[in-house]
Amino acid sequence: MHLVIITGASRGLGRALAVELSSAEHSLLTIARHPDPTLGTEAAARGATIEQWALDVVRDVGVAARLEAWLHPKDGHGYDSATLINNAGLLGTVGPVENMDSDELAAVLRVNLEAPMALTGAFLRATAAWSCPRKVLNISCGAGRNPIAGWAAYCASKAGLDHFSRVTALDEARKPNGARIVSLAPGVIETAMQSQLRASDESGFPDKQRFLDLHANAQLATPEGAAQKIAAFLARPDFGTNPVADVRNA
């Protein structure tokens, strides 16, 4: 049995990942502000066991502690692998940083960087004695590697996620059965975030036309197509060799 924990799993890429990884060999735990009851039905139909938590990683500061407490009593010998997928993401207001108030700025940094760090720490502590392979997959973005005007908070948080993954990979490599960790850019996907970008004011987002063109020319991946590629990447025997990767270059 493979244990998989996914954040932001109620829609978009997160939901598609949950469906893609649903099988009789998988036990899923999903964390989202508003769980999707149809996801439970769909996962069960595919033979997976699934538990959904209704938690907001911005406001529910005890999410990591709850995950750690949930994992502690479990017997790692009962699993063939354990994987944490930090997928939840928040773009925030598009435009110069002065257009974003402090509460919104904090929310973007918390969802994109603080929560993945805290959840990863909880996951690693709780499963430290498990003998099965352990993986952490952080869903990053090309924006963490290439600056985009108007995305200060988002770019900075994803760049931080990449570097956090690099450092944690070094720390885990020093352990006898350290977890493997990758911060993966999944490509440009048609999600609610893309809709937000296309509706943004171009005065604070000079690259808006590029995203309009991607949509008009059908160059955006579907969440389902991206989930298939990510699942294949996750299953690769060399997962973790490069802690910062792009699914398009895999």
How far is the N terminus from the C terminus? 26 Å
How does the major sheet shape up?
Answer: 7 strands, parallel
Number of β-strand runs: 7
Structural class: alpha/beta
Number of helices: 8
Which descriptors apply to this entry?
8 helices, 250 residues, seven-stranded parallel beta sheet, alpha/beta, single chain, globular
Quick structural gist:
With 250 residues, the protein is an alpha/beta fold.
Describe this entry's structure for a reader.
With 250 residues, the chain is an alpha/beta fold. It is 41% helix and 16% strand. It is built from eight helices and seven strands. It has a seven-stranded parallel sheet, sandwiched between helices. Strand 4, helix 4 and strand 5 (134-139) form a beta-alpha-beta unit. The protein is globular and about 55 Å long.
Outline the fold blueprint.
Layout: E1 2-7, H1 12-20, E2 26-32, H2 37-45, E3 49-54, H3 63-71, E4 81-86, H4 102-126, E5 134-139, H5 152-173, E6 180-185, H6 192-198, H7 208-216, H8 223-234, E7 244-246
Parallel strand pairs: 1-2, 1-4, 2-3, 4-5, 5-6, 6-7
